[in-house]
Amino acid sequence: MATVIRSETHPGIRSYEEVNRDVLKLMSRPGRAYFILLAAILAVLGLGIFAWMVQIVLGIGMSGLINPVGWGAYITTFVFWVGIAHSGTLISAVLLLFRARWRQSIYRAAEAMTVFAVLTAGLFPIIHLGRPWIFYYLLPLPNQRGLWPNFRSPLLWDVFAVSTYLTVSATFFYIGMIPDIAAARDATTVPWRKKLYSILSLGWRGTDREWKNFTRAYLYLAALATPLVLSVHSVVSWDFAMSIVPGWHTTIFAPYFVAGAIFSGLAMVITLLVPIRKIFGLQEYFTIRHFEMMAKLILVTSLVVTYAYATEYFMAWYSFETPERHVFWNRLFGDYWWATWIMILCNAGVPILLWFKKVRTSIPALFVITIFINIGMWFERFVIIITSLAQEYEPWQWQNYQPSWVEMSILLGSFAWFFLWFLLFMRVLPAVSIAELKEVLPVPLRFGRRGARSAGAHGSEEGRGNE
Amino acid sequence: MSDRKGSGLLAIFAEVDAACAAIEGLREKGLRDMVVFSPTPRHELEHALHTPEVPVRLFTLVGGLTGAGSGFALGIWTSLNWPLITGGKPIISLPAFVIPAFELMVLMGALSTVVGLFINARLPGARHNVVYDRSFSAGRFGVYVEPPAGREDEARTILRESGALEVREGPEEVRVGTL
Predict the structure, then answer these.
(1) Cα distance between residue A422 and residue B21, in whole Å
(2) B114 → closest Cβ in A146, A171, A435
(3) ipTM value
(4) How far apart are CA A11 and CA A283, in angstroms?
(5) HSE-up of B133 (CA within 13 Å, CB side)?
(6) Can you give the three-state secondary structure of A57-102, one letter per residue?
(7) Is B143 helix (H, G, I), strand (E, B) or coil?
(8) A168 vs B113: CB contact, 8 Å cut-off?
(9) For residue B100, what are the CA distances in angstroms to A153, A177, A234, A401, A456?
(10) A189 burial class (0-12, 13-18, 19+ CB within 10 angstroms)?
């Protein structure tokens, strides 16, 4: 008889088979609510597409961009979505290297979020171009006269960083999913699903050779993704920090942006997982413990972000540079005071609540707090970009910027685009890692704990026939 | 090993230690040519099988170095192609080229890791008439062995005695039509 031992992280799950049943059930029979949600999302996406078409037909003047504010809501939203992406890689790759025992059930959803957030972010530089059909000017390709883009420019670095991030995170996402797609293939009876999973699972059978190579390859991919995720938001921050614009030209931008990215991304993971947990009944999988661990990470990154805010103001004061001092004074008490105070309140103020265990273990409280953080982090980028540009160099040039309805509709549309991908993903691919979750479940044993040790010992009973 | 013929025995286990016992029993008798199936990677199985290290890491290394080298090469070559001084920086500004080089290192390192995985794990594999059982992706462990002629009984006894739920024999029983 197999001994029944409960898992530490998932005490409610009893067997390997139960995982397959529960996870694969998510993908079958979408209810009416699903289609209503899908329709609502498509409507918002339609609004965004309409606004973009208006901008393409009538020109970039349809946005609120003016001189000197050449970067507005589009770049803000780009940085916001790239930031959202980061926590997915943190959970899937960094926590894998640290062997955190609480990442297994949530990492697939977080990783999906990464891929879809980068997909969303990648649209914004192209929308921002105004003439999206010549987007290939961004790529490292020579033009008609054989001239190459400038490799010393942070904007080109950004192209390298973001496109690498999209490719590598999508690869990591797919490779990690192959064994689970195989599990879906073995369980499904729907013909189109059978066909799809059969192709996507590449004939995976879970043999010893496959697993050995898979676990090694997965480890190396995680080892590559970990420095990548740190580099991506550093490079994004250098889009600003490499310039001499007051408020941007600072060395703390890279770590400041990376911490902010992980902060906002973890908040988005919680915002997404709370309704998913409720709707799909995944309480055994996304446990309070998972939420609490994420809340702790949010608290840490919130403190880093708060520290970075304080450092910025300190450096402006201590440097005795009039323009720097002016920009930071203007942020707090100028025309955009409201945006700055939203940012400080949401990112440095609200997360203070997470010091209390009661709050960290309350799902509704976390849901509300993370929505505040999402809003606050969008405003952080808005504040950094707009306040610095609006009062950039010469006072006679100064002008304030207001996002137009086109920019706001495209921002809304980007959320719809992101949620659309996520909703489709939930129904087509396994949203919880089946194979990896089994690593934290007790393994079925015939001879009990002691027997297992001798049966699986490091070659203690090597036979005569051994080389 | 080649498991395409399907002429061997496929034992199905509910427990990992039973599968390990079967693997060790077979190895002791010199029947080392086997394929083991599991729903999740287990170190116990790897230890029982004495699986050697796999060469995927070489692919990662070579891919990463190629990427880093080509990133630097691209930056240097394109700058020399039109040697225009901008911002008072040298034509070959290596610190600036570190970033494209780093990103290409990660990109090519990751893609070649995948190539290494596919080559070494034989993926994409055959999808028709392969030795398999659909319960392997859910919770069962499998040991497939093709003993030399005349030793089938011996192998069957080892598999049964280590606690197999069932032992299947012959291509009809051990293979599935289409994955």
Answers:
(1) 44
(2) A171
(3) 0.93
(4) 11
(5) 27
(6) HHCHHHCCCCCCCCCCHHHHHHHHHHHHHHHHHHHHHHHHHCCCCC
(7) strand
(8) no
(9) 11, 29, 13, 33, 46
(10) exposed
Name the 3-class secondary structure at A203: coil
Nearest-angstrom CA–CA distance, A260 and A80: 10
Where does the pLDDT of residue B142 fall: very low under 50, low under 70, confident under 90, or very high at 90 and above? very high
In chain A, which residues have their Cβ closer than 8 Å to the Cβ of B16? 443-445, 452, 456
Mutation target to probe the B interface, by most B beta carbons within 10 A, among A210, A230, A234 is A210
Q: A151: nearest CA in chain B?
A: B75
B175 token code pair? 């293979």
Q: Of the given ranges (A2-11, A246-255, A410-419, B92-101), which has the lowest mean pLDDT?
A: A2-11
Max Cα–Cα distance, chain B, nearest Å: 81
**Within 13 Å and on the Cβ side, how many CA atoms surround A289?**
13
pLDDT tens digits, one per residue of A193-239: 999 999 999 999 999 999 999 999 999 999 999 999 999 999 999 99
CB contact under 8 A, B103 and A171: no
DSSP structural state of residue B54: P
Q: Searching chain B, which residue's CA lies closest to the CA of residue A142?
A: B78
Chain B closest CA to A57's CA: distance in Å? 35
Query: What is the pLDDT at residue A1?
Result: 43
State both tokens at A121.
């972010």
Task: Report residue A303 CA to chain centroid gap.
Answer: 20
Check: CB of residue A448 under 8 Å from CB of residue A3: yes
The dihedrals phi and psi of B128, each to the nearest 5 degrees, come to -125, 140
**pLDDT tens track for A89-126:** 888 888 888 888 888 888 999 999 999 999 999 999 99
Distance CA A256, CA A377 (A): 12
Q: Look up the pTM and report it.
A: 0.91
Question: Mean pLDDT over residues A328-347, rounded?
Answer: 94
- Give the Cα separation of B154 and B174 in Å (integer): 18
**What angle, rounded to 10 degrees, do the helices at A208-241 and A73-89 form?**
150
